[in-house]
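Quick one, C-alpha coordinates below:
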Protein backbone atom coordinates (compact mmCIF):
# COMPACT_ATOMS: atom_id res chain seq x y z
CA UNK A 1 0.00 0.00 0.00
CA UNK A 2 2.76 2.43 0.96
CA UNK A 3 4.65 1.46 -2.19
CA UNK A 4 1.59 2.35 -4.29
CA UNK A 5 1.32 5.76 -2.60
CA UNK A 6 4.98 6.48 -3.15
CA UNK A 7 4.63 5.49 -6.77
CA UNK A 8 1.75 7.95 -7.20
CA UNK A 9 3.77 10.82 -5.78
CA UNK A 10 5.60 12.88 -8.40
CA UNK A 11 9.33 12.66 -8.53
CA UNK A 12 10.81 15.87 -6.99
CA UNK A 13 13.29 16.02 -9.83
CA UNK A 14 10.44 16.22 -12.33
CA UNK A 15 9.15 19.42 -10.68
CA UNK A 16 12.31 21.30 -11.42
CA UNK A 17 12.08 23.35 -14.58
CA UNK A 18 15.49 23.46 -16.27
CA UNK A 19 14.80 27.08 -17.28
CA UNK A 20 13.45 28.07 -13.86
CA UNK A 21 15.78 26.96 -11.04
CA UNK A 22 13.09 27.72 -8.48
CA UNK A 23 11.06 24.86 -9.90
CA UNK A 24 7.84 26.84 -10.03
CA UNK A 25 5.31 25.94 -12.73
CA UNK A 26 4.78 28.71 -15.26
CA UNK A 27 1.24 29.43 -14.00
CA UNK A 28 2.51 29.90 -10.45
CA UNK A 29 5.62 31.89 -11.34
CA UNK A 30 5.37 35.57 -10.25
CA UNK A 31 5.10 37.85 -13.27
CA UNK A 32 7.67 40.60 -13.55
CA UNK A 33 6.35 44.12 -13.46
CA UNK A 34 8.06 45.91 -16.31
CA UNK A 35 8.98 49.60 -16.40
CA UNK A 36 8.43 51.07 -19.86
CA UNK A 37 11.15 53.44 -20.93
CA UNK A 38 9.29 55.68 -23.41
CA UNK A 39 6.34 57.05 -21.35
CA UNK A 40 8.35 57.12 -18.12
CA UNK A 41 11.21 58.83 -19.91
CA UNK A 42 8.81 61.59 -20.98
CA UNK A 43 7.57 61.86 -17.39
CA UNK A 44 11.16 62.21 -16.15
CA UNK A 45 11.73 64.93 -18.75
CA UNK A 46 8.67 66.79 -17.42
CA UNK A 47 10.04 66.40 -13.89
CA UNK A 48 13.38 67.84 -15.00
CA UNK A 49 11.58 70.79 -16.62
CA UNK A 50 9.93 71.56 -13.27
CA UNK A 51 13.28 71.26 -11.48
CA UNK A 52 14.88 73.51 -14.10
CA UNK A 53 12.16 76.11 -13.54
CA UNK A 54 12.86 76.21 -9.79
CA UNK A 55 16.61 76.62 -10.36
CA UNK A 56 16.05 79.42 -12.88
CA UNK A 57 13.76 81.26 -10.46
CA UNK A 58 16.35 80.97 -7.70
CA UNK A 59 18.80 82.68 -10.05
CA UNK A 60 16.32 85.44 -10.92
CA UNK A 61 15.73 84.20 -14.48
CA UNK A 62 11.95 84.13 -14.37
CA UNK A 63 11.36 84.00 -18.13
CA UNK A 64 13.29 80.73 -18.35
CA UNK A 65 11.43 79.48 -15.26
CA UNK A 66 8.08 80.10 -16.95
CA UNK A 67 9.26 78.37 -20.12
CA UNK A 68 10.27 75.37 -18.03
CA UNK A 69 6.78 74.99 -16.58
CA UNK A 70 5.14 75.32 -20.01
CA UNK A 71 7.51 72.68 -21.41
CA UNK A 72 6.59 70.42 -18.48
CA UNK A 73 2.90 70.91 -19.31
CA UNK A 74 3.47 69.89 -22.94
CA UNK A 75 5.42 66.79 -21.88
CA UNK A 76 2.75 65.91 -19.31
CA UNK A 77 0.12 65.92 -22.06
CA UNK A 78 2.23 63.49 -24.08
CA UNK A 79 3.27 60.76 -21.63
CA UNK A 80 -0.20 59.35 -21.08
CA UNK A 81 -1.04 59.45 -24.77
CA UNK A 82 2.23 57.73 -25.66
CA UNK A 83 1.57 55.05 -23.04
CA UNK A 84 -1.89 54.37 -24.49
CA UNK A 85 -0.67 54.37 -28.09
CA UNK A 86 2.16 51.94 -27.31
CA UNK A 87 0.06 49.86 -24.87
CA UNK A 88 2.63 50.49 -22.15
CA UNK A 89 0.35 51.70 -19.33
CA UNK A 90 1.41 50.58 -15.88
CA UNK A 91 0.63 51.29 -12.23
CA UNK A 92 4.23 52.44 -11.83
CA UNK A 93 3.77 54.97 -14.62
CA UNK A 94 0.59 56.35 -13.06
CA UNK A 95 2.28 56.90 -9.70
CA UNK A 96 5.36 58.37 -11.36
CA UNK A 97 3.20 60.79 -13.33
CA UNK A 98 1.38 61.99 -10.20
CA UNK A 99 4.64 62.60 -8.32
CA UNK A 100 6.14 64.48 -11.27
CA UNK A 101 2.97 66.60 -11.57
CA UNK A 102 3.16 67.48 -7.88
CA UNK A 103 6.66 68.85 -8.38
CA UNK A 104 6.22 70.58 -11.76
CA UNK A 105 2.68 71.93 -11.27
CA UNK A 106 2.43 72.08 -7.49
CA UNK A 107 5.69 72.89 -5.72
CA UNK A 108 7.48 74.65 -8.58
CA UNK A 109 4.82 77.32 -9.39
CA UNK A 110 4.26 78.03 -5.68
CA UNK A 111 7.98 78.53 -5.06
CA UNK A 112 8.47 80.59 -8.22
CA UNK A 113 5.61 82.99 -7.55
CA UNK A 114 6.70 83.32 -3.92
CA UNK A 115 10.23 84.20 -5.05
CA UNK A 116 8.95 86.61 -7.71
CA UNK A 117 6.36 88.52 -5.69
CA UNK A 118 5.05 87.09 -2.46
CA UNK A 119 8.17 87.00 -0.27
CA UNK A 120 8.04 90.79 0.06
CA UNK A 121 4.65 90.56 1.79
CA UNK A 122 6.02 88.73 4.82
CA UNK A 123 4.12 85.81 6.31
CA UNK A 124 0.89 86.82 4.57
CA UNK A 125 2.64 85.92 1.33
CA UNK A 126 2.78 82.32 2.55
CA UNK A 127 -1.02 82.08 2.34
CA UNK A 128 -1.59 81.94 -1.45
CA UNK A 129 1.60 79.93 -2.03
CA UNK A 130 0.55 77.27 0.49
CA UNK A 131 -3.08 77.27 -0.66
CA UNK A 132 -1.81 76.68 -4.18
CA UNK A 133 0.50 73.79 -3.30
CA UNK A 134 -2.12 72.21 -1.03
CA UNK A 135 -4.75 72.61 -3.75
CA UNK A 136 -2.47 70.85 -6.23
CA UNK A 137 -1.93 67.93 -3.83
CA UNK A 138 -5.65 67.60 -3.14
CA UNK A 139 -6.48 67.92 -6.84
CA UNK A 140 -4.09 65.13 -7.83
CA UNK A 141 -5.25 62.85 -5.02
CA UNK A 142 -8.92 63.37 -5.92
CA UNK A 143 -8.17 62.80 -9.60
CA UNK A 144 -6.49 59.48 -8.84
CA UNK A 145 -9.38 58.13 -6.76
CA UNK A 146 -12.18 59.46 -8.98
CA UNK A 147 -10.68 58.62 -12.36
CA UNK A 148 -13.11 55.74 -13.01
CA UNK A 149 -16.29 57.67 -12.16
CA UNK A 150 -15.70 61.11 -13.68
CA UNK A 151 -17.26 62.11 -17.00
CA UNK A 152 -14.28 61.95 -19.36
CA UNK A 153 -15.40 65.06 -21.18
CA UNK A 154 -14.63 67.23 -18.15
CA UNK A 155 -12.11 67.69 -15.35
CA UNK A 156 -13.42 68.03 -11.81
CA UNK A 157 -11.81 71.33 -10.89
CA UNK A 158 -9.07 73.21 -12.73
CA UNK A 159 -6.35 70.73 -13.80
CA UNK A 160 -2.98 71.38 -12.17
CA UNK A 161 -1.07 72.05 -15.45
CA UNK A 162 -3.61 74.75 -16.36
CA UNK A 163 -3.38 76.25 -12.86
CA UNK A 164 0.41 76.34 -13.18
CA UNK A 165 0.13 77.91 -16.64
CA UNK A 166 -2.18 80.60 -15.25
CA UNK A 167 0.31 81.60 -12.53
CA UNK A 168 3.37 81.28 -14.76
CA UNK A 169 1.64 83.15 -17.57
CA UNK A 170 1.13 86.14 -15.27
CA UNK A 171 4.80 86.15 -14.32
CA UNK A 172 5.92 85.73 -17.93
CA UNK A 173 3.76 88.60 -19.21
CA UNK A 174 4.91 91.01 -16.51
CA UNK A 175 8.54 89.91 -16.75
CA UNK A 176 8.36 90.54 -20.50
CA UNK A 177 6.94 94.00 -19.73
CA UNK A 178 10.01 94.83 -17.65
CA UNK A 179 8.92 93.82 -14.14
CA UNK A 180 11.76 91.51 -13.16
CA UNK A 181 10.34 91.18 -9.66
CA UNK A 182 7.06 92.30 -8.12
CA UNK A 183 8.23 92.49 -4.50
CA UNK A 184 8.82 96.27 -4.77
CA UNK A 185 5.56 97.09 -6.57
CA UNK A 186 2.66 96.79 -4.13
CA UNK A 187 -0.15 96.43 -6.67
CA UNK A 188 1.75 93.68 -8.48
CA UNK A 189 2.18 91.80 -5.22
CA UNK A 190 -1.56 91.82 -4.68
CA UNK A 191 -2.25 90.79 -8.29
CA UNK A 192 0.08 87.82 -7.84
CA UNK A 193 -1.58 87.12 -4.48
CA UNK A 194 -5.05 87.03 -6.05
CA UNK A 195 -4.14 84.99 -9.14
CA UNK A 196 -2.22 82.41 -7.10
CA UNK A 197 -5.06 82.09 -4.58
CA UNK A 198 -7.62 81.79 -7.40
CA UNK A 199 -5.61 79.07 -9.14
CA UNK A 200 -5.14 77.11 -5.91
CA UNK A 201 -8.80 77.20 -4.92
CA UNK A 202 -10.00 76.47 -8.46
CA UNK A 203 -8.16 73.16 -8.41
CA UNK A 204 -10.37 71.88 -5.57
CA UNK A 205 -13.73 73.15 -6.79
CA UNK A 206 -16.34 70.96 -8.48
CA UNK A 207 -16.62 73.25 -11.51
CA UNK A 208 -16.45 71.26 -14.78
CA UNK A 209 -13.51 72.23 -16.98
CA UNK A 210 -13.53 70.76 -20.49
CA UNK A 211 -10.89 68.06 -20.88
CA UNK A 212 -10.58 67.98 -24.71
CA UNK A 213 -10.16 64.19 -24.43
CA UNK A 214 -13.00 63.55 -26.86
CA UNK A 215 -11.27 65.59 -29.56
CA UNK A 216 -8.96 63.17 -31.28
CA UNK A 217 -8.26 61.13 -34.35
CA UNK A 218 -11.50 59.12 -34.09
CA UNK A 219 -13.82 62.10 -33.70
CA UNK A 220 -14.71 64.44 -36.55
CA UNK A 221 -14.68 68.17 -35.91
CA UNK A 222 -16.07 71.11 -37.88
CA UNK A 223 -13.72 72.81 -40.33
CA UNK A 224 -13.90 76.00 -38.29
CA UNK A 225 -12.11 74.21 -35.42
CA UNK A 226 -9.04 73.68 -37.61
CA UNK A 227 -9.17 77.35 -38.63
CA UNK A 228 -9.32 78.38 -34.96
CA UNK A 229 -6.33 76.15 -34.17
CA UNK A 230 -4.36 77.72 -37.02
CA UNK A 231 -5.21 81.24 -35.78
CA UNK A 232 -4.22 80.26 -32.25
CA UNK A 233 -0.84 78.97 -33.43
CA UNK A 234 -0.18 82.24 -35.26
CA UNK A 235 -1.14 84.34 -32.21
CA UNK A 236 1.10 82.27 -29.94
CA UNK A 237 3.99 82.63 -32.40
CA UNK A 238 3.54 86.44 -32.55
CA UNK A 239 3.75 86.94 -28.78
CA UNK A 240 3.89 83.75 -26.69
CA UNK A 241 3.57 85.31 -23.19
CA UNK A 242 0.42 87.31 -23.89
CA UNK A 243 -1.20 84.67 -26.08
CA UNK A 244 -0.63 81.80 -23.65
CA UNK A 245 -1.69 83.88 -20.64
CA UNK A 246 -4.85 84.97 -22.45
CA UNK A 247 -5.70 81.38 -23.42
CA UNK A 248 -5.26 80.06 -19.89
CA UNK A 249 -7.16 82.98 -18.37
CA UNK A 250 -10.10 82.09 -20.61
CA UNK A 251 -9.78 78.41 -19.73
CA UNK A 252 -9.44 79.21 -16.02
CA UNK A 253 -12.81 81.00 -16.15
CA UNK A 254 -14.54 78.52 -18.46
CA UNK A 255 -15.38 76.00 -15.74
CA UNK A 256 -17.36 78.55 -13.77
CA UNK A 257 -19.13 79.71 -16.93
CA UNK A 258 -20.17 76.12 -17.71
CA UNK A 259 -21.23 75.62 -14.08
CA UNK A 260 -23.32 78.81 -14.09
CA UNK A 261 -24.87 77.99 -17.48
CA UNK A 262 -25.91 74.50 -16.35
CA UNK A 263 -27.23 75.86 -13.08
CA UNK A 264 -29.28 78.53 -14.86
CA UNK A 265 -30.72 75.91 -17.22
CA UNK A 266 -31.61 73.59 -14.36
CA UNK A 267 -29.19 70.95 -15.59
CA UNK A 268 -27.00 68.73 -13.45
CA UNK A 269 -23.64 70.27 -12.71
CA UNK A 270 -21.50 67.48 -11.21
CA UNK A 271 -19.09 65.53 -13.40
CA UNK A 272 -19.32 62.44 -11.18
CA UNK A 273 -21.17 59.74 -13.10
CA UNK A 274 -23.88 57.57 -11.52
CA UNK A 275 -22.31 54.37 -12.83
CA UNK A 276 -18.71 53.27 -13.25
CA UNK A 277 -19.77 51.27 -16.32
CA UNK A 278 -20.79 54.35 -18.28
CA UNK A 279 -18.79 57.32 -16.96
CA UNK A 280 -19.93 59.51 -19.88
CA UNK A 281 -23.62 58.91 -19.31
CA UNK A 282 -26.00 61.86 -19.14
CA UNK A 283 -27.33 60.97 -15.70
CA UNK A 284 -24.97 62.92 -13.46
CA UNK A 285 -25.42 63.78 -9.83
CA UNK A 286 -26.95 67.21 -9.12
Amino acid sequence: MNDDLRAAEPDPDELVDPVDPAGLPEARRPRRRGIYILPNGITLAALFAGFYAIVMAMNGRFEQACMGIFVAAVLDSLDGRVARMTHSQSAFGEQMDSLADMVSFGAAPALIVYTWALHGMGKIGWVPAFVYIAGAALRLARFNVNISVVDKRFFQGLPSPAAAALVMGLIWVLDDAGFKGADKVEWLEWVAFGVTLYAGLSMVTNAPFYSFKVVGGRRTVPFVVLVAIAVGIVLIALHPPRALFGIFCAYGLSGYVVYGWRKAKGQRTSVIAVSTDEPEEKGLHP
